[in-house]
Amino acid sequence: AFIDGRIRWVDGARRQTIARRFLEGNRLVREYQTYDVLRSLAEITRDGEASDSTRRVALEWAIRVWSSGRGLAPSQTEAADIYVPTRGGWRSAREAVFGDKWPSRDGGHRLERFLSQAHQYSETLGKTRNQLMIPFADWEVGFGDECEWSAFLSDAGVVDCLRPINVLTEDVVA
């Protein structure tokens, strides 16, 4: 739980204090679950009414939670459905692809080069080009380096390759 530092949570013998027992016993506070926090932050990134700066702050806090060491499986990170900034605007990480300006993602370099030449021949490839992540160097974040962000975004669902799609429905094939 996030509690003001002036409230003692344990006593000198590492036992729960009366204040803690009262607050927890009456369900006024509870230990936070990492996935719940990540899911709440992801909700902000999905909010089309929120400003870009608000969404970016939520995304930055999401990587902080993810990297906190409090045990998130990649499947939980992906299930949170975090939205990320792409050339075509904010979209689900599960729809986004790494591009050339993500140095730790070799496939992103090849993919962006391919899309820059082939998008004119296919509407679907043109749409995929809009799914390219904004280059990391253009992000206004104060936490983490490109490798950390790349790992986090990969867990969230961003890939560095084309996604197979059903040509009849244009749905991504899992």
Structural account:
This protein is mainly alpha-helical and 174 residues long. Helix content is 43%, strand content 5%. The protein is built from seven helices and two strands. It has helices at 18-25, 34-46, 52-66, 74-79, 106-118, 123-130, 146-156; strands at 83-86, 89-92. The chain has a two-stranded antiparallel ribbon with strand order 1-2. Strand 1 and strand 2 form a beta hairpin. The longest helix has 15 residues, at 52-66. It is elongated, with a radius of gyration of 20 Å. The two termini are 37 Å apart.
Quick recap:
This protein is mainly α and 174 residues long. The chain has helices at 18-25, 34-46, 52-66, 74-79, 106-118, 123-130, 146-156; strands at residues 83-86, 89-92.
Biggest sheet architecture: 2 strands, antiparallel
The topology string of helices and strands comes to: HHHHEEHHH
**Mean pLDDT value:** 87
N-end to C-end Cα span: 37 Å
Strand content: under 5%
Percent of residues in helices comes to 40-55%
Q: Helix segment count?
A: 7
Neighbour order of strands in the largest sheet: 1-2
Structural class comes to mainly alpha
Apparent shape? elongated
Calculate Rg over CA atoms: 20 Å
Total E-strand runs:
2
Any low-confidence stretches, pLDDT <50, length ≥5?
none
